[in-house]
């Protein structure tokens, strides 16, 4: 790890150089996990998009296969400007088939999007190194009434009881404001017919990278996309081009009416819950046939400037640590996301502390917890707030109407609250000149009940001025029956991924410290509230580096 490149991550997937965005077509095939990704071979900003390709045995140690990209746009017209996002489907004989979007032109003025099929040249090659494009491409073009410039990102196809495949294409209706996803059906995977819009929501704009998959109501294991049994729900996720966030909703997919209906319309797709309340976009899940999990990949973009990407870094974009995903049986509406357990294989130098007090107004280092590569897991006892304490929490002002993110930015880590802010300072300079604070803050609502807010405060993360230091935060659902508030922060040089309440709520942020780099990255516990907080357990590990290299054949 060169000193001059302090922002390159040590155990997140990123290409050796240049731009990367969406994860595409992940699958487990003949002993290897495959990750494809939107990649610019010629520079550190978006453009010239091809499908990069990497493989791994464990979702953590990756090898590049990018001498020859999996899919490259052209020379035919239908993807001449680039090979955009798409997904893998296993056909009946087990062949992985890619549906992807081609960026193209019908005239010199009009650029459109088409959907195309690519297949492995050798379907017995576990590395799936070479792909060819179907002679039938494009296999889907927009209907005349659709906006062909807002028509992309086919999902993995699922098979209905009628024996037909179905895929979803993300879109925006011609009213320019309604986001939707079109279902197309096919018997042979080549001839596709527009069937119905699975769902749409006014005001949400273009739906990029849709995803739809079944989840068990009561079980943590995953399901293949075509599963249809009693005791399952469907999750629908869309990436909103308007605000660059990934939203999901739990509901019912009806094969006969070709519709998805959210269980709770107030938290419908695009207006309710998000996978991540920080930076996380264009995600895609897949069913891991090796272990039976559903696994989520998501792109984490940079928060520094384009100039930094081109000049000092030479790269942009990382993939978040892959997350196992299941429906929270306790709430029925939230997904639980946790880093895949393979990540624990990188744990080194464990530090454990049990049952201690995090004193009001304290900032304390923890012996042995240091550096830019950490996994920190903390269980706080949930404070028991007595009726006569509520007015202190209330803080004199009625903040209940503010959004959690505003609470986080107004009640930054330096704020003196009642219960909170309490949590961790990571990637911190020894003298705290730079620090990224991840913390809980308890907030009383109008109805006198309290809410927990989780915040990731980047405002003091770097002395650099040309980076986006937006403070992220959101409410965390904490059930009456739950005794703890939990937090897991995964730190890797320029990224901090925070999993709150066992993964019910996730916040990812990018930070670019100038002092708190490499060995000068310090760690502290802090409690800036006026009340002590009791810690049930604290566990932290240094994370081993993963050197991503080219696969030697
Ligand atoms: N990125 C791809 C598109 C997709 C967008 C192009 C989402 O297919 O809609 O690189 O980030």
UniProtKB/TrEMBL annotation:
InterPro entries, sorted: ConA-like_dom_sf (IPR013320), Fructan_Metab_Enzymes (IPR050551), Glyco_hydro_32 (IPR001362), Glyco_hydro_32_AS (IPR018053), Glyco_hydro_32_C (IPR013189), Glyco_hydro_32_N (IPR013148), Glyco_hydro_beta-prop_sf (IPR023296)
The keyword tRNA processing belongs to this UniProt entry's keyword annotation: no
SUPFAM superfamilies for this protein: Arabinanase/levansucrase/invertase (SSF75005), Concanavalin A-like lectins/glucanases (SSF49899)
CDD domains: GH32_Fruct1-like (cd18624)
Signal peptide boundaries: none
Superkingdom of origin: Eukaryota
Pfam families: Glyco_hydro_32C, Glyco_hydro_32N
The keyword Nucleotide-binding is annotated on this UniProt entry: no
One MF term in the entry's GO annotations: hydrolase activity, acting on glycosyl bonds
Domain Glycosyl hydrolase family 32 N-terminal, residue spans: 12-339
Keyword line: Glycosidase, Hydrolase
Name of the protein this chain belongs to: Beta-fructofuranosidase
Organism: Riccia fluitans
